[in-house]
């Protein structure tokens, strides 16, 4: 299994894959560890998780270097990702005891309550775009609930996967409570079928989610899926156009545009369309790609050359079908997987830019004449992960967010981001279930009803 630096094009690590025998041995070890871990006290688990958060901060420079080397994220963004992982560790270490406390329910019985108990080993199939954050938002609540964790990470970030396993060990968690398995996607179905794996969580593409859901459904195992997105951002007639454009560009360019909740479709009221377009273009055209370790770089390389080339094909095909290219839209010279900040307008049905997720620094502009039309365009997608509304009328925005947009989360006057304190997930083909917050830690527990006559 090779890790290739997308900036230099050079191999930055070679790791032996686990064979079938080794995978089964690891699963057996994790299952055995569960037998004692489930009986541990919540305060004991919290102490380990607090220490894990401290280790992340102590080793942030080393860890962020691994992220940047393996998938190209800007160094400053990698540091922010590691620090966010420390935050989610602290959050669940502090709040899991109350989230998992038994809840009394008044009935005609003398006593009735719900007890939240662990269910066993949870398999996590994780992506490369946030190679630490995606794992830790699973790891922290899963281990705090008394479950054990098994990580199948993306094949291009094996160094990240092994570093996370090492951190868990160094934090003092009991042996085999959390393990990494280095395998390809074709081996996942067999792992899901192993009777000692009790549930699966996946963050990734919609096709990958459907495949995992089918495999898990065949053996009646619960899944949580966080899949693709084509997030709509509504720019209403009373928006602060300059601030909206700044935030929209930031939301589109974060992580070189490789984010499920990245700002992707900008749906702009006719009265402010030209002003917003000009401001957005100013930000996008000034964004410079380059060395991800250089503080002045705006956009690092995309994670792999093939992903960059697929994105370019979507842009080219959309232009061939009538979209207008306003900036970017070319493959730079050199070996690095760069793609420039790109803006398309006149995006219509039938184009990839209309229907498909653009997983890179490409923005699509839409001009609309009413709020109803804006909502109609926003919802005309198979996805439903996030969305945003920019306006000075927050009461109207709240109504549009609650009753209009089909999405798992909506931000008003800001770009969409995940937060340990808030539920995170989508609807439609963006998946189901929720991560983070109280809802996230209760996804993989047995809500056991106990009644005393």
SSE topology sketch:
Elements (H helix, E strand, L loop, with lengths): L1 E3 L6 E4 L5 H18 L4 H17 L1 H12 L3 H25 L3 E2 L6 E8 L2 E5 L7 H12 L3 E5 L5 H13 L7 E3 L7 H6 L3 E7 L2 H13 L3 E5 L4 E5 L5 H13 L9 E7 H17 L18 H16 L3 E4 L14 E4 L6 H4 L6 E7 L2 H9 L6 E5 L3 H11 L4 E4 L18 E2 L4 H5 L3 E8 L1
Parallel strand pairs: 5-6, 5-8, 6-7, 8-9, 10-11, 10-15, 11-14, 13-14, 15-16
Antiparallel strand pairs: 1-2, 3-4, 4-18, 9-17, 12-13
Helix pairs in contact: 2-4, 3-4, 3-6, 4-5, 9-10
Give an account of the 3D structure.
This protein is an alpha/beta fold. It has 2 domains: 2-227 and 428-452, 3-Layer(aba) Sandwich (Aldehyde Dehydrogenase, Chain A, domain 1); 231-412, Aldehyde Dehydrogenase, Chain A, domain 2 (3-Layer(aba) Sandwich). 42% of the residues lie in helices and 19% in strands. The protein has 15 helices and 18 strands. The protein has helices at residues 20-37, 42-58, 60-71, 75-99, 133-144, 158-170, 188-193, 206-218, 241-253, 270-286, 305-320, 352-355, 371-379, 394-404, 437-441; strands spanning 2-4, 11-14, 103-104, 111-118, 121-125, 148-152, 178-180, 197-203, 222-226, 231-235, 263-269, 324-327, 342-345, 362-368, 386-390, 409-412, 431-432, 445-452. The strands form 4 sheets. The protein has a 7-stranded mixed sheet with strand order 12-13-14-11-10-15-16, with helices on both faces. The chain has a 6-stranded mixed sheet with strand order 7-6-5-8-9-17, with helices on both faces. A hairpin with a 6-residue loop joins strand 3 (103-104) and strand 4. Helix 3 crosses helix 4. It is globular, with a radius of gyration of 22 Å. The N and C termini lie far apart (58 Å). The relative contact order is 0.14.
């Amino acid at each position: 299994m090779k890790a290739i630096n997308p900036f230099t094009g050079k191999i930055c690590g070679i790791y032996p894959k686990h064979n079938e025998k080794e995978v089964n041995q690891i699963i057996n070890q994790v299952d055995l560890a569960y037998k004692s871990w489930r009986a541990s006290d919540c305060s004991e688990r919290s102490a380990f998780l607090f220490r894990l958060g401290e280790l992340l901060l102590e080793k942030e420079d080393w860890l962020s270097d691994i992220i940047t080397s393996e998938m190209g994220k800007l160094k400053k963004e990698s540091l922010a990702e590691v620090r966010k992982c420390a935050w989610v560790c602290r959050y669940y270490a502090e709040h899991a005891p109350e989230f998992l406390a038994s809840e009394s329910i008044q009935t005609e019985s003398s006593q009735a309550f719900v007890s939240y108990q662990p269910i066993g080993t949870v398999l996590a199939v994780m992506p490369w775009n946030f190679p630490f954050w995606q794992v830790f938002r699973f790891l922290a609540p899963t281990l705090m609930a008394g479950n054990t964790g098994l990580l199948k990470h993306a094949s291009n970030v094996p160094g990240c996967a092994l570093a996370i396993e090492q951190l868990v060990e160094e934090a003092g968690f009991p042996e085999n409570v959390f393990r990494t398995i280095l395998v390809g996607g074709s081996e996942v179905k067999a792992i899901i079928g192993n009777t000692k794996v009790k549930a699966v969580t996946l963050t990734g593409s919609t096709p990958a989610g459907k495949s995992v859901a089918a495999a898990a459904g065949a053996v009646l195992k619960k899944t949580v899926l966080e899949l693709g997105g084509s997030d709509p951002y509504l720019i209403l007639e009373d928006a602060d156009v300059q601030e909206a454009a700044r935030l929209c560009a930031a939301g589109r360019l974060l992580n070189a545009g490789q984010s499920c909740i990245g700002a992707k479709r900008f749906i702009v009221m006719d009265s402010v369309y030209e002003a917003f377009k000009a401001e957005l273009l100013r930000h996008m055209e000034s964004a410079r790609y380059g060395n991800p370790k250089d503080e002045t770089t705006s956009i690092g390389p995309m994670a792999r050359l093939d992903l960059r080339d697929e994105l370019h094909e979507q842009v080219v095909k959309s232009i061939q079908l009538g979209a207008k290219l306003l900036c970017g839209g070319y493959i730079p010279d050199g070996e690095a997987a760069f793609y420039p900040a790109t803006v398309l307008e006149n995006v219509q049905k039938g184009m990839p830019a209309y229907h498909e997720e653009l997983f890179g620094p490409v923005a699509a502009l839409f001009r609309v004449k009413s709020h109803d039309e804006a909502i109609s365009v926003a919802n005309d997608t198979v996805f439903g992960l996030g969305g945003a509304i920019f306006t000075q009328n927050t009461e109207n925005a709240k109504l549009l967010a609650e009753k209009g947009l089909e999405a798992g989360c909506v931000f008003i006057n800001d770009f969409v981001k995940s937060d340990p304190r808030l539920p995170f997930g989508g609807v439609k083909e963006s998946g189901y279930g929720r991560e983070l917050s109280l809802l996230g830690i209760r996804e993989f527990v047995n809500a056991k009803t106990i009644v005393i006559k």
